[in-house]
């Protein structure tokens, strides 16, 4: 049930609820949700936390993931998803949208919008997807200053430091940066773009006691591993950042091709979410019940046929 009609909305801060999930045994599975509808569907599937990917946000806006969007634009997505689902949301904070003061503004803005956690990466602008080539890394001490600023500004937000150093500096560079970021105040580490099980295991072995996040993105450098496999390698969280958007986009591509080919949607109806399914997901009738002046909607039982 969505935020306006739920009678059991959480009262604890989102960051505290995210920490509570991490305190339980096992690995926290965090699927990406690129909008409120995706978030509701993930919640109905049984997930207890969600991830908002910068790549998914920008792609849904029709632009590349190169650090072009603003804090306010991200906050719109954060509010949409958290109000729809009331689940703890981990947000992609890119490079922090600037230096220390910008990072502090981002942290407070994300908290006010309802975010539970954020990860900040040690790249320079224009930043790139962690699984692409030729990323430019920030000085580790400059990145540590950003983490310290985030820690100073946060009230309850869970702070994850992401390092993209593995590709250019190897495991030594990645682990060295991670230790520096933990000393600066990070709550967890996200070692990005590791490409073998041995790399995942080594990072975990060299960072004992540090909560680690694994990224299981498709079409990247990381082979497919299951949540259980990541847990066995020493990881506490796993995200599937862009999967919901990829599936939705592929389905839309097929839809538009069918309309162009067939002159209508008649051959795609079986692939669609029905009106009844949509209304059930968003709690349509529950919203109507809040105001007796709204006439209850009757869902058509079947599509009218041509005579």
Descriptive key words:
alpha/beta; three-stranded parallel beta sheet; 45% helix; 307 residues; globular
Query: Uncertain segments of ≥5 residues (pLDDT<50)?
Result: none
Q: Which secondary-structure class do the elements indicate?
A: alpha/beta
Number of domains: 2
- Helical content stands at 40-55%
Query: What share of residues are in beta strands?
Result: 5-15%
CATH C-level class of the largest domain: Alpha Beta
End-to-end span in angstroms?
A: 40 Å
Count of extended strands: 8
Helix and strand sequence: HEHEHHEHEHEHEHEHEHHH
What's the CATH H-level superfamily name of the largest domain?
Phosphoenolpyruvate-binding domains
3D structure, described in words:
There is one protein chain. The chain has 307 residues and is an alpha/beta fold. The protein folds into two domains: 229 residues, Alpha-Beta Barrel (TIM Barrel); 41 residues, no CATH class. It contains twelve helices and eight strands. A five-stranded parallel sheet has the order 2-3-4-5-6. Strand 5, helix 7 and strand 6 form a beta-alpha-beta unit. Helix 4 packs parallel to helix 5, helix 5 crosses helix 6 and helix 6 packs parallel to helix 7. The radius of gyration is 21 Å and the shape is globular. The two termini are 40 Å apart. 40% of the residues are buried.
């Amino acid at each position: 049930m969505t935020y306006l009609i739920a009678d059991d909305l959480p009262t604890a801060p989102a960051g505290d609820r995210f920490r509570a999930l991490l305190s339980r045994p096992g690995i926290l599975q965090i699927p990406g949700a690129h909008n409120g509808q995706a978030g509701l569907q993930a919640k109905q599937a049984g997930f207890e936390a969600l991830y908002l990917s910068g790549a998914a946000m920008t792609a849904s806006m029709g632009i590349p993931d190169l650090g072009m969007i603003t804090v306010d634009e991200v906050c719109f997505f954060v509010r949409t998803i958290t109000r729809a689902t009331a689940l703890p949301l981990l947000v992609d904070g890119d490079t922090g949208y600037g230096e220390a003061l910008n990072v502090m503004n981002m942290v407070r803005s994300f908290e006010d919008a309802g975010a539970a956690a954020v990860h900040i990466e040690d790249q320079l602008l224009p930043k790139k997807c962690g699984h692409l080539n030729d990323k430019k890394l920030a000085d580790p001490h400059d990145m540590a200053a950003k983490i310290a600023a985030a820690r100073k500004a946060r009230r309850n937000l869970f702070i994850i430091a992401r390092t993209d150093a593995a590709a250019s500096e190897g495991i030594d560079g990645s682990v060295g940066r991670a230790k520096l970021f933990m000393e600066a105040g990070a709550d967890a580490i996200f070692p990005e773009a590791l490409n073998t099980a041995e790399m995942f295991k080594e990072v975990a072995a060299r960072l004992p006691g540090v909560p680690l996040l694994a990224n299981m993105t498709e079409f990247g450098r990381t082979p497919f591993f299951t949540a259980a496999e990541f847990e066995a390698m020493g990881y506490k969280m796993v995200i599937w950042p862009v999967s919901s958007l990829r599936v939705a986009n592929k389905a839309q591509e097929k839809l538009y091709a069918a309309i162009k080919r067939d002159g209508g949607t008649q051959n795609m109806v079986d692939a669609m979410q029905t009106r009844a399914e949509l209304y059930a997901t968003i709690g349509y009738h529950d919203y109507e019940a809040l105001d007796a002046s709204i006439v209850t909607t009757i869902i058509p039982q079947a599509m009218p046929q041509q005579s």
